[in-house]
Amino acid sequence: VQLQASGGGSVQAGGSLGLTCAASGLNFRLYSMRWHRQAPGKQRELVAEISNGGSASYSDSVQGRFTISRDNVRRRLYLQMQNLQPEDTGVYYCNVDHRERTFWGRGTLVTVSS
């Protein structure tokens, strides 16, 4: 299983960014997918999750600002982020549990300045 996140960058507070995670090595449509982030000096935290059926859930800190989605044909996971705030700064990772293992992609850095 390989996961590759992309789309990070630097924005000012109030701006928007879209992240993409490309997945390979698994039957993508069968698995729930997640976005996590890790802020400097903090533990990694779950940001959003989408089930194989398309049901989405979010952490309280991003609810109403972030949207997770997926394209099962292209095997892509997305995270659309709006009204970004400095506390959203961190490295964003996609991950999946596959055959009793957890796989993490290389993260993508999001930096939000005030």
Q: Would you mind describing this structure in some detail?
A:
With 114 residues, this protein is an all-beta fold. It contains no helices and eleven strands. The chain is globular, with a radius of gyration of 13 Å. A hairpin with a 5-residue loop joins β5 and β6. Strands 2, 4, 5, 6, 9, 10 and 11 form a seven-stranded mixed β-sheet that branches. The chain has a four-stranded antiparallel β-sheet with strand order 1-3-8-7, with no helix packed on it. The protein has strands spanning 2-6, 9-12, 17-24, 33-38, 45-50, 56-58, 66-71, 76-81, 90-98, 101-104, 108-113. The termini are far apart.
- Beta strand %: over 45%
In round numbers, the mean pLDDT is: 96
Distance between the termini: 37 Å
> Based on DSSP secondary structure assignment, what is the total number of beta strands?
11
User: What is the makeup of the main sheet?
Assistant: 7 strands, mixed
Weakly predicted, low-confidence segments? none
Order of helices and strands: EEEEEEEEEEE
The class by helix and strand makeup works out as: mainly beta
The radius of gyration computed from the alpha-carbon positions, rounded to a whole number of angstroms, is: 13 Å
Share of residues in helices:
under 10%
